[in-house]
Amino acid sequence: MAQSKSKWVQFSAFATVPLVLVLGNSMLVPVLPDMAKHMKLSELQSSLVITLFSVSAGLFIPFIGYLSDRMRRKAVIVPALALYGAAGIMAGMAAVWDSYPLLIAMRSVQGLAAAGTSPIAMALVGDMYKDGEESEALGLIEASNGAGKVISPIIGSLLGLWSWYAPFFAFPFFCAGSLIAVIFLIKEPKQKEKPLPFKKYIVEIKAIYAKNLAWLLTAYAAGALGLFILFGVLFYLSDMLEKPPYSIDGVAKGGLLAIPLLGLVLTAYTTGRLIKNKKKLMRKLMLIGLSVIVLSLSAAAIWHSNLIALISFVTISSIGTGLLLPCLNTMITGCAERAFRGTITSFYSSLRFLGVAAGPPLFSFIAGKSVTMLFIILVILSAASLWLVFRFIHPGAQTTNSG
């Protein structure tokens, strides 16, 4: 009983890391229009506050993943969380001082720090747990990530009622809570072996990719596509809600956007608890999840002008994503030994970040041409991912290192 309690305490500490990762970005979205007004920024300039964060994180994740393979994971996560919060305070001061260059610089630093948080926490979960416990923890991390996306627009909107720059200063408090939880509640096992020499490490990494290239690239692409679609569709839905005849904004809009994300959270958590180390079940759930995405987006292509129908189909698509992501997380995290796990999972996390960053601008551009065409393109991409998963991901496809 005590061991089970200790496990859930550590699981809860792990869950705070993706939560603050999301809050540090998504909580700012509701105040971007006010920020642009007060700082006299163009739409492009204000969007860079979000985009540069994601791009910076995506670019630095592989490098920081490599560092985490060379040292203890917490030695990366703890300073990253501290820098994340400190840069958040400076970003808030830049907003108060009306200094856009400093604001952008600090958001880039926050992105760099974010690269050492949730992606490395995933690798640490793989170090500490196996089979059912690993998938359960990773499912909780994915659910926490989704929960952050549910509450962050609402928190951002509420804080924005007080002051448009209040979310910048609120975030470091959340970050401090996660930092304390990671330091005191997560007991990282000691590294049994010394890090390999750099040349030997590169040889081994190449060997892992040589053996697993087809299914790993398929898994990386499926994860990035899932988040690209999720965030792109939510961005389109957010824009649709603000325009006539709906004109829904603020907390009410955040509540409506929370509906699809709630579907993702509940499904991801349940999937993580179910799959354990059952590779056949993982493959089946990934195929079901992608099929659900294809069918729901096909329906959205037809009925996208009806708000209730669109929210319903987006929610169903999010449920499909909730089936897909925990399976991908577990397979990718478990495919390599501890000495290489940081790098293998970091490339996956990097593509997820870039998928999130690419969604809103590409959706905005394509929707400006034709909303129907937008959903047709998404259906084609999802169907292609479904075929690739069917073709390349199957029980026995995964091997570990080159030995």
UniProtKB/TrEMBL annotation:
Transmembrane segments: 12-32, 44-64, 76-97, 164-186, 213-238, 250-269, 281-302, 308-328, 349-367, 373-393
Gene3D superfamilies in alphabetical order: MFS general substrate transporter like domains (1.20.1250.20)
Keyword match Lipid metabolism: no
Domain of life: Bacteria
Location relative to the cell: Cell membrane
UniProt domain Major facilitator superfamily (MFS) profile: residue ranges: 10-397
Keywords per UniProt: Cell membrane, Membrane, Transmembrane, Transmembrane helix, Transport
Membrane topology recorded in Swiss-Prot or TrEMBL: Multi-pass membrane protein
Coiled coil ranges: none
PANTHER family assigned: CHLORAMPHENICOL EFFLUX PUMP RV0191 (PTHR43124:SF3), PURINE EFFLUX PUMP PBUE (PTHR43124)
Protein name: ACDE family multidrug resistance protein
